[in-house]
Amino acid sequence: MLDRRVTRDRRPSKQMLALLATMSDRPGHWRHGYELMKETGVSSGTLYPLLMRMTEQGLLAAEWREPVQAGRPPRHTYRLTAAGISLARSVAESQSRSSVGMVRI
To answer: Would you state the pLDDT for residue 105?
Structure first.
């Protein structure tokens, strides 16, 4: 039987690019999903599966944090790993290279 799983090497989606850009502003800072949703404009139905996928790929570290305010539930928080920081830098570099030489009219 053939294994139909295919390893794809494709460009990050615009949602992933927005998330990488937002998280690379403060790469060592832990952020929760709601904060990321507000900062990126990515809907929760897209953001949370993306966070899970990026965690599985080793681009994000995830952990549960106890609430700051009593009576609130713990929150899942995320931050970039070394691999995530590297990807964010390479994406930023490739975007800056592609915009060089462009003239706005």
So the answer is: 42
